[in-house]
Design a protein that fits this description.
The strands form two sheets. Strands 2, 4, 5, 6, 9, 10 and 11 form a seven-stranded mixed beta sheet that branches. A four-stranded antiparallel beta sheet has the order 1-3-8-7, with no helix packed on it. The chain starts with a strand and ends with a strand. The protein is mostly beta strands. It is globular and about 40 Å long. Strand 5 (46-52) and strand 6 (57-59) form a beta hairpin. The protein has strands at 3-7, 10-13, 18-25, 33-39, 46-52, 57-59, 67-72, 77-82, 91-99, 110-113, 117-122. The chain is built from no helices and eleven strands.
């Protein structure tokens, strides 16, 4: 059974950095697509970044150049390095798997979601 466990959330000032980690277990295929999504208060859930088993990455426009998704296969862990954080990045961030093909902008960008880690950016 797929299990996604996030860590690394917290409170940071505008312009600061945070790194989220996701421990992954139960992936059934060596070919996969995973990523990160977020949901801000009063807004729909959205995808933020994705990475596949070949290391190809994609990002939603609002985080390009600031966020970097990566993975360490030896540790079964995926990361999201977030730099130059803005107050509008404040959200619950979710580790996610099973890219749907609808695009990162969709609230259904992924088929499976973790429990979430809160990221708060103060101005």
């Amino acid at each position: 059974q797929l299990r996604l466990v996030e860590s690394g959330g917290g409170v940071v000032q505008s312009g600061g950095s945070l790194r989220l980690s996701c421990e992954v277990s139960g992936l059934m295929s060596s070919s996969y697509c995973m990523g990160w999504g977020r949901q801000a208060p009063g807004k729909e859930r959205e995808g933020v970044a994705a990475i596949d088993s070949d290391g190809r990455t994609s990002y939603t426009d609002s985080v390009k150049g600031r966020f970097t998704i990566s993975q360490d296969k030896s540790k079964n862990t995926m990361y999201l390095q977030m730099n130059s954080l803005k107050p509008e990045d404040t959200a619950m961030y979710y580790c996610a798997a099973d890219c749907s093909g609808y695009g990162l902008e969709s609230s259904e960008a992924f088929g499976s979601w973790g429990q979430g880690a809160q990221v708060t950016v103060s101005s």
